[in-house]
Amino acid sequence: MADWYRTQLVDTGRSVALWVLIGFLVTYGLTRWITRRIRARDASGADDEGASIKDVYIGGVHVHHQVWGILLILTVGLVEFRYHPDSPWKDILGALFGVGAALALDEFALWFHLEDVYWTDEGRKSIDAVMVAVVVGVAVLLSSSPVGLDPNTARNEGYLIASATVIINLTFAIICFLKGKLATGLVALPVPLVGLIGAIRLAKPSSFWARRWYTEPKMSKATARFGEQHDARRERLRDLFSGGRW
């Protein structure tokens, strides 16, 4: 098992991505469980004095868990840039980065609204950010290169071909972004085939691509494609990731 871990994960550069993903998923799950416990207690009117799980206040100010996440990410980045540790220390840093990222992205909606919208419809944007992060994390774990091209392949095939491959890959990703498909575009960076599929398929009607180039018939087709049924599927997926509707 140890040999497999080293050859398949450490030697390929995937071990850190694995521990980032583990730290992220575990922390996000625990965070959602804790916040739901606190909300349920507040809704029941129970006194939180002596409770083992409660909100953190410093100087009368509610310190949201995104603050601890941001501080942890900054600390991990500083240690990595300064010391460049080898395994297993870089794996530990990866896990801590995942912990910080989960705490920060779980309150992603608060970044934009600058107020506590955690339990509102606006707050569900945080779930979208988490889902995107998970998809990107899995894609990076499965691929050793963030641009879909392994360095050894670049040396073997020649840098001209490698450069052309990267440019084509980035073009697919950019088209996905312009079509309003953020998650697909991000996954397309390490997985080129995903970018090709996303670039071919219909754009979201609210995207720059659709507004700029779609004719009325095609806009109507895109609107039908991303209509109520699409929104319902997205809400069910959000509920799955957040532990239920609130």
Question: What can you see in these coordinates?
Answer:
The chain is an all-alpha fold and 246 residues long. The protein folds into 3 domains: 1-142, no CATH class; 145-201, no CATH class; 204-246. Helix content is 70%, strand content 2%. It contains 13 helices and 2 strands, in the order ααββααααααααααα. It has helices at residues 2-10, 15-44, 65-83, 89-105, 108-113, 125-142, 151-157, 159-178, 182-188, 192-200, 208-213, 216-225, 228-242, and strands at 57-58, 61-62. It has a two-stranded antiparallel sheet. A hairpin with a 2-residue loop joins strand 1 and strand 2 (61-62). Helix 3 packs antiparallel against helix 4 and helix 8 packs across helix 10. It is flat and about 65 Å long.
Mean pLDDT: 86
The major β-sheet equals:
2 strands, antiparallel
Beta-strand percentage range: under 5%
As a whole number of angstroms, the C-alpha radius of gyration is 21 Å
SSE order: HHEEHHHHHHHHHHH
Shape: flat
The helix content, as a percent range, equals over 70%
**Distance between termini?**
42 Å
Oligomeric state of the chains?
Answer: single chain
Query: Could you give the count of β-strands?
Result: 2
Query: What is the structural class?
Result: mainly alpha
Number of domains: 3
Q: What's the helix count?
A: 13
User: How are the strands of the biggest sheet laid out side by side?
Assistant: 1-2
* Uncertain residue segments: none
